[in-house]
């Protein structure tokens, strides 16, 4: 490889900037020319491509969001859009693309690979929903944001002796709810991967208040159901009124945690190494304590649920 483009696509995630910086700096270190594509695949189709220098990524390692901007691009789902995108790269002699995002981003990248571009995917999403990697860039920061918010909610929940139902993001994945739930000692955690019984949760609430608990936090992953309906049913069944807090996009913002900044740095560098070794159609993954490459196709398989232990522990600790 000689010329490598980098883009971010799909929902932004804290640490994406640190990953962009790593791709640019590692690439230039190895005498590659690196190009930034603005606005994800939409910008690629329109030719919004600029050569990046060392200074282009100065002072961004700690910043949330993505300096390259991002978009969800419908045109990239169609063969015409895919061809336009590949042609923009080919016209500039760019032979490879590093795409930072979720599985939708990887699908776009895969199409470009079929059109002759070498591609590497980096997992960047707060949802932690990509098969093949233990963690995605942004997940840890987002969990920390939820933990901080819940500790504030606890102050008011305790003062009013109230139940709070907190909805967190994650699309169809319950990992943010699960990790933040354990970290905050939530009384119950509702995630899409595990069926829940509101009668059981009501009983738990009653037991808790009987033995002197003065507040409760119910953590609900957005994929587990409509939080307003869940909260209403919980009031009806338990007899306790509650308040609903939907944390929303605040979970996508902020400076990356050190864990995410480290992960992003290592993954960005690994993506460039993979290209230098001649690899293509691979994703970068964290596996145990290592950063590895895996076939991009692995990311398209559904992520098997593997967090029974965390769920069970959180449940046991919140009796
Ligand atoms: O994939 C990241 C994510 O924040 C999900 O958790 C959430 O379901 C979705 O994006 C929200 O998308 P949008 O920002 O387009 O509303």
UniProtKB/TrEMBL annotation:
PANTHER family in the cross-refs: ATP-DEPENDENT 6-PHOSPHOFRUCTOKINASE (PTHR13697:SF4), PHOSPHOFRUCTOKINASE (PTHR13697)
Name of the protein in question: ATP-dependent 6-phosphofructokinase
Keyword list, A-Z: Allosteric enzyme, ATP-binding, Cytoplasm, Glycolysis, Kinase, Magnesium, Metal-binding, Nucleotide-binding, Transferase
Name of the gene: pfkA
HAMAP family: Phosphofructokinase_I_B1 (MF_00339)
Biological source species: Syntrophobotulus glycolicus (strain DSM 8271 / FlGlyR)
Active site: 127
Class of the enzyme per the UniProt entry, highest EC level: transferase
Binding annotation for Mg(2+): 103
